[in-house]
Amino acid sequence: MQRREKLGTQAKLSATVLAAYLAWAQKQWPDALERLQGELTPERLALIRSAPEEAEWVGFADAMEVVRAIARVAGGDPNATFHALGSHSAAINLAGACKSFTPEEPHRFFDSMGFLHGSFQNFGRSSYQRLGGNSGRIRLEGYIEYSPVFCESGRGNYEQTLRMMQVPGPIRVVETACQCAGDAACVFDLSW
């Protein structure tokens, strides 16, 4: 089934997520803002140039378009870029949270995802189910807006989160259901 997206004006992300995406781009190209200039509308270019404060929220649709622009500048497989952006976001936004967890505690960390979810986005909810000693399932539902771009970014985010906890591995994150494909929720199965 073809994956679709639903974008509007209600869903918002923490500005820290957008900042992490832009930090990744600036690591790749010191002139990232100039490279993105031709890829973004004037309004979205003004958004990234204004560097919103950490406590601010940015439009989900705006962030997804910035991510797409970064992928166009990067060239190659856009999903690889979306994945890398999610991984970088976890490395920046979750580093402090992950330090307090040992490799034996990923379940405890993911149990707290419901709270963290609300810290980074104003839509949907997250729940976690332990499946086994080294596996679990994250369920994201109630999304008023969604995008396959964000799903691939999320997969990278969860993988990096597990790497930062230094789990024994191998790390595997698979999206087994997706709102973008018409499912009721996005479901990620994790194992390590």
Structure notes:
This protein is an alpha+beta fold and 192 residues long. The protein has two domains: 12-93; 103-191, H-NOX domain. Helices cover 50% and strands 18% of the residues. It is built from nine helices and six strands, in the order βαααβαααααββαββ. It has helices spanning 15-28, 32-37, 42-50, 60-74, 78-93, 95-99, 106-111, 113-120, 148-164, and strands at residues 12-14, 57-59, 125-132, 135-141, 172-177, 185-191. The strands form two sheets. The protein has a four-stranded antiparallel sheet. Helix 1 packs parallel to helix 4 (60-74), helix 4 packs across helix 5 (78-93) and helix 5 (78-93) crosses helix 9 (148-164). The radius of gyration is 16 Å and the shape is globular.
In short:
The chain is an alpha+beta fold and 192 residues long. It is 50% helix and 18% strand. Strand 3 and strand 4 (135-141) form a beta hairpin.
Topology, please?
Blueprint (H helix, E strand, L loop, with lengths): L11 E3 H14 L3 H6 L4 H9 L6 E3 H15 L3 H16 L1 H5 L6 H6 L1 H8 L4 E8 L2 E7 L6 H17 L7 E6 L7 E7 L1
Antiparallel strand pairs: 1-2, 3-4, 4-6, 5-6
Helix pairs in contact: 1-4, 1-5, 4-5, 5-9
